[in-house]
Amino acid sequence: MLDIDVIRADPEKIRDMLIKRNKTTERLDRLLEADGEWRKLTNENNQLRKTRNAVSLEIGKMPKGAEKDAKIKEMRGVGDQIAANDARMAELDAIRKDCLLNIPNIPADDVPVGKDDTENVEVKVWGEKRKFDFTPKNHAQLMLDLDMVDFDRATKIAGSGFYCLKGDGARLERALICFFLDMHRKQGYKEVFTPVIVNTAAVTGTGQYPNLKDDMYHLERDDMWLNPTAEVPVTNLLQGDILSKEDLPVKLTAYLPSFRREVGKHADTAGIIRVHEFNKVEMVRFEEPSKSWEALEEMRGNAEELLQLLGLPYHVLLLCTGDQSFSCAKCYDLEVWAPGEGRYLECSSCSNDLDFQARRAMIKYRPEPHLKSEFVHTLNGSGLALPRTMVAVLENYQNADGSVTIPEVLRPYMGGQEKIVPPETKKTF
């Protein structure tokens, strides 16, 4: 959430920002109108209370009589006006809060201006794309041939957009998760395992609510939400806290399943690239404001290291204003090359949200014991997201005989197994 003083100081800067983010300016206009009236009534009530206090002192010294009765009646009228103003100010404050919750973060100065993902800027390319001497299969065909997945049985129990890993498919996914978590621990992150179900305060704190409420699964009876991304529960672990300077930085990592309705998107596309439920390992950092930009580059490097150790070609994109997520000020996307698909697939987004989330979730730190508390800066990054990383592993490491070579860094997590081979005979399950 933006500081309302920032909006008041330069509303045209915010208007320009919204246009660059492909957002309407309707809520900004509504906010400015409501805030203007709220401030006017605040000043009016302050003056009315000052007058009432002064006159009340006079009334106390006045003798009984018509003049005193008139003053008392007059002050009752002032009290009624104060109450009416307070009621209206409460309505205006609700409008202000709603507008503030729906205005996105301000992009950093070095974020390119653009309308959509076609105007993102490639800032790095790593690895050589493999040249095949056979026609590579896509991941869906590979997984079916290797008996790693069952789409039909998953649809039977949950509907389209879900899948069931089995055998080496389930083992490979678990190996990737364990590898990611172990690497992040070496990189200085503390592992946590949080609830998967979160409350409205949590999704509001990180900016998914109300902005993305239609893309989340809502448990209406309990007013709870299925975790849309581990960023939500992990960031909100510090909701309402005031940290000391010595506490920072806080670096956390977590594996959690994530759930998205994918409204308006084709969640039932063949394969596991866009689905309703997926696993992800997340990095979350809480930093002093002066150190958050350096932390973003380090976090991006932490995610890149995983792809490099897996030997997967990838590139890094700096997202333009029109493709940034709601809460971030600057975001890098890591996209891994999937030869069977013939395209790059996003497997990580690393973002600096500055104090935007911290202001919503009231996460502060005290620079010095005697100084006023300030908002921390929050950062988050996928490290990495599945199943797209699995897609890239399968498609990049496939062999002409239909087998898939397991990357060396994953073999210790799979009992030393070197390859996934097609079964001699396929059983019912």
TrEMBL record:
Pfam families to which the protein is assigned, alphabetical: Seryl_tRNA_N, tRNA-synt_2b
Known catalytic reactions: tRNA(Sec) + L-serine + ATP = L-seryl-tRNA(Sec) + AMP + diphosphate + H(+); tRNA(Ser) + L-serine + ATP = L-seryl-tRNA(Ser) + AMP + diphosphate + H(+)
Cellular component annotations (GO), alphabetically ordered: cytoplasm
Pathway membership, UniProt: Aminoacyl-tRNA biosynthesis; selenocysteinyl-tRNA(Sec) biosynthesis; L-seryl-tRNA(Sec) from L-serine and tRNA(Sec): step 1/1
GO term, biological process aspect, one: selenocysteine biosynthetic process
Domain of life: Archaea
GO molecular function: ATP binding; serine-tRNA ligase activity
Keywords from the UniProt entry: Aminoacyl-tRNA synthetase, ATP-binding, Cytoplasm, Ligase, Nucleotide-binding, Protein biosynthesis
Positions bound to L-serine: 229-231, 260, 282, 380, 382
Domain (Aminoacyl-transfer RNA synthetases class-II family profile): residue spans on this chain: 138-407
Keyword Nucleotide-binding applies: yes
Binding site for ATP: 260-262, 275-278, 346-349
SUPFAM superfamilies: Class II aaRS and biotin synthetases, tRNA-binding arm
Principal location listed in the UniProt entry: cytoplasm
UniProt-annotated location(s): Cytoplasm
PROSITE patterns per the UniProt record, alphabetical: AA_TRNA_LIGASE_II
Catalytic activity, EC: 6.1.1.11
Transmembrane feature ranges: none
Keyword Ligase: yes
Role summary: Catalyzes the attachment of serine to tRNA(Ser). Is also able to aminoacylate tRNA(Sec) with serine, to form the misacylated tRNA L-seryl-tRNA(Sec), which will be further converted into selenocysteinyl-tRNA(Sec).
Domain notes: Consists of two distinct domains, a catalytic core and a N-terminal extension that is involved in tRNA binding.
PANTHER family the UniProt entry points to: SERINE--TRNA LIGASE (PTHR43697:SF1), SERYL-TRNA SYNTHETASE (PTHR43697)
Subunit structure: Homodimer. The tRNA molecule binds across the dimer.
Family, similarity comment: Belongs to the class-II aminoacyl-tRNA synthetase family. Type-1 seryl-tRNA synthetase subfamily.
Name of the protein in question: Serine--tRNA ligase
Species of origin: Methanomethylophilus alvi (strain Mx1201)
Lineage: Archaea, Methanobacteriati, Thermoplasmatota, Thermoplasmata, Methanomassiliicoccales
Gene from which this protein is expressed: serS
